[in-house]
């Protein structure tokens, strides 16, 4: 069933057995897939295949998954879902300079991966939404242009970070629970620590505006509605 709406997934995985399983499940669900077994091939296929989403194994020979993600993220907003065997890498993955949109840890259920791929694609394709721009003090968020700035200086955010920030900006001055913020991140598979990791990263990325995101003890987070 190929159609113009068929989404393309690039599976980057050096373990053939795992790549086979992922490709089989994704194809059974109507996705088109390509496979790269190393980082160099991943970058080549990213350019040639123009995937709608990249499933990226962290541990790859030669060029690591982190390097691949950084290279791609510097040029593209394509959703990246990291696959890792190391649960303790998770904070780095969802956070910090990487800009991954989601992650799964090995061993994973292929069904869960497919569900999360769908969720990420759904979030990244909100084309029929109304114009969504917010200005809170020195902070500006534009979901349509996928841009944010602090005091006029552009800040570089991943799609997930931008959506989180927009959610906070839309509710400026009001505390949002981690549960409410989770709505921006996933469909029930994501846990609350993921929110914390994203917020930590978001604060860093925002520069001076980072301190506008306040932790509300026992609740979650709030974007302070005032200038500094
Ligand atoms: Ca691997």
Structure, briefly:
By secondary structure, this protein is of the alpha/beta class. The protein has 8 helices and 12 strands. It folds into 2 domains: 2-125, Response regulator (Rossmann fold), CATH 3.40.50; 133-223, Winged helix-like DNA-binding domain superfamily/Winged helix DNA-binding domain (Arc Repressor Mutant, subunit A, Orthogonal Bundle), CATH 1.10.10.10.
Please outline the major beta sheet: 5 strands, parallel
Instruction: Tell me the β content.
Output: 15-25%
| Cα-based radius of gyration, to the nearest Å | 18 Å
Number of strand segments: 12
One letter per element, helices H and strands E, the order comes to EHEHEHEHEHEEEEHEHHEE
Enumerate the strands of the largest sheet in spatial order, edge to edge or round the barrel. Answer: 2-1-3-4-5
CATH architecture type of the largest domain: 3-Layer(aba) Sandwich
Stretches where pLDDT is under 50 for at least 5 consecutive residues are none
Q: Could you describe the 3D structure shown?
A:
It contains 8 helices and 12 strands. By secondary structure, it is of the alpha/beta class. β8 and β9 form a beta hairpin. α2 runs parallel beside α3. The model has no long low-confidence stretch (mean pLDDT 85). Bound molecules: calcium ion (CA). The site of calcium ion has 5 residues, from loops.
Helix and strand layout, with pairings?
Layout: E1 8-12, H1 16-28, E2 32-36, H2 39-49, E3 53-57, H3 65-73, E4 80-84, H4 90-94, E5 102-105, H5 110-124, E6 133-136, E7 139-142, E8 147-150, E9 153-155, H6 159-170, E10 175-177, H7 178-182, H8 192-205, E11 213-216, E12 220-223
Parallel strand pairs: 1-2, 1-3, 3-4, 4-5
Antiparallel strand pairs: 6-7, 7-8, 8-9, 10-12, 11-12
The protein binds calcium ion.
Calcium ion binds at residues 14-15, 57, 59-60.
């Amino acid at each position: 069933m190929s159609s113009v709406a068929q989404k393309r997934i690039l599976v980057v995985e050096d373990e053939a057995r795992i790549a086979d399983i992922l490709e089989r499940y994704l194809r059974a669900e109507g996705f088109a897939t390509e496979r790269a077994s190393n980082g160099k091939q991943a970058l080549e296929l990213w350019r040639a295949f123009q995937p709608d989403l990249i499933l990226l194994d962290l541990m790859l020979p030669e060029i690591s998954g982190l390097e691949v993600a950084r290279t791609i993220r510097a040029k593209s907003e394509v959703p990246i879902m990291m696959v890792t065997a190391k649960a303790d890498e998770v904070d780095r993955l969802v956070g910090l300079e990487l800009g991954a949109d989601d992650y799964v840890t090995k061993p994973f259920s292929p069904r869960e991966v497919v569900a999360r791929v769908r969720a990420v694609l759904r979030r990244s394709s909100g084309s029929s939404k109304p114009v969504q721009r917010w200005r809170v003090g020195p902070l500006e968020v534009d979901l349509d242009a996928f841009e944010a700035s602090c005091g006029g200086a552009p800040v570089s955010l991943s799609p997930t970070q931008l959506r989180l920030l927009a959610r906070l900006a839309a509710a400026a001055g009001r505390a949002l629970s981690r549960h409410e913020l989770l709505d921006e991140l996933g469909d029930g598979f994501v846990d609350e620590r993921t929110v914390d990791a994203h917020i930590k990263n978001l604060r860093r990325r925002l520069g001076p505006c980072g301190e506008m995101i306040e932790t509300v003890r026992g609740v979650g987070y709030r974007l302070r509605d005032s200038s500094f």
